[in-house]
Amino acid sequence: MSEFFNKEAALFEELYFYVRGCIGSSLVVGGLSLRLAHKKERGLRAFGAMYLSIGALFTMSALDPILELPVDLDNLLYQSLMCYQGIVLIDIALYLFGNEQKAGGRSILKRAGLGYAALLVLLPLLDYALGLESNRSNVEDSLLRAPLHAAAIQAAYAWPIAATIAALRIARWKLADITGKTHEEKRLLSALGLVILDIAAILIGLALSQRFLYRLGHLLLELLLLGGYLYVVHNPRALMRLRSEIGQEHARRISLGEDEAALIEKRLASIADKAQAVFDEGFDLRKLAALIGIPPYRLSAYFSSRRRLSFPAWKNKLRIEYVRARMAQRPDLTILEISVEAGYRSKTTFNEQFARIVGMSPSDYRRSLSRDPQAH
Q1: Which of 104, 178, 252, 294 shows the greatest Cβ crowding within 10 Å of its Cβ?
Q2: Does residue 150 share a domain with residue 216?
């Protein structure tokens, strides 16, 4: 009986790696074809890169029983592909959700991913330095690895997940802009739900060294990705439609009626007597929203659509207006004393901001007041 089960287990092993290799190589070819066929379409290029990198990971795993690479080279290739996968997911998230709120966010995330990957490449070298033995069996290929090497393999999964979450946070549009009312959004939410559940199963299998759960999760993930690829190939404009739908919902969600805008304007005017609270260094958009009783996202929409400026720019303008008023009211106070009242801790920053908004230096402005107080 045990011999029968051993044969069944061996057959499942062979079938697992065969299917993994077939789907992996198919995704590599499919990813390359997407990138080559749609060079000008950013979303399809990013999806092609995703399939290419994931396919390469699956193919690399399927070849493990045949082509056993040195453990350090294997880890270098693995961490490089996982790092690239995270960067690709950043591109996809930013494409679907309207790019970055501020330029430079993607570059910061990319550097963070490269740094994290480099750390996971170097971490196993400590196994040699500390003389740690290879006594940890990997659930994927059953090879024995030293503790830090085994930890680096598992830790690599954190980067693509963290990269996606971080990209969604720096994107112009938000998850709240997905209502699930359109066909493309329904498909996206369904696919995301299945992928999240499947990745959770894979991580559980990895953490508990449950090989069957881990491999079953990977097989399901491969099938989901293959199905997603076929859908995108047959509906190449689906990504553009989805991006457009999310953008339209975002525009609708942040649009303000005249009555709501007037209410916010009135409440903002009422905080003049609370200037010191507003000028506090830790005062942010959420605190302002709580102070005037307006939801933060509506207040953010007001600044972007009505004032055409950000909250920090509005706060800085308010501080400079306060400084100008105090200069006229209290000629006995020094400029430095007034700037500190307005919350400035750096004289250089204050001078730069004052000159940018007023068009002259604080000293020149005070002199102009003494010449003609009514002119200001």
Answers
A1: 178
A2: yes
Measured distance CA(220)–CA(137) in Å, rounded:
23
Residue ranges making up the domain that contains 87: 2-250
List all residues 6 or more positions away from 126 whose beta carbon is below 8 Å from its beta carbon. 132, 148
Q: What secondary structure, in 3-state letters, does 39-87 show?
A: CCCHHHHHHHHHHHHHHHHHHHHHCCCCCCCCHHHHHHHHHHHHHHHHH
Residue 318: CB partners within 8 Å, gap ≥ 6? 275, 278, 279
Q: Structurally, how many domains does the chain consist of? A: 2
Residue bearing tokens 């002119």? 375
Q: Which two tokens stand for residue 332?
A: 């006995």
Give the model confidence (pLDDT) of 109-168 as tens digits: 999 999 999 999 999 989 888 888 877 777 766 677 888 988 898 899 999 999 999 999
* Last residue in a domain, options 250, 267, 285: 250
Tell me, yes or no, whether 120 and 48 share the same domain.
yes
Q: What is the pTM of this model?
A: 0.72
Please report, to the nearest 10 degrees, the dihedral formed by the alpha carbons of residues 241, 246, 252, 256 taken in order. Answer: -140
Output the six-digit token pair for 287. 């605190």
Q: Is residue 133 within 8 Å of residue 146, measured between CB atoms?
A: yes
293: DSSP letter:
T
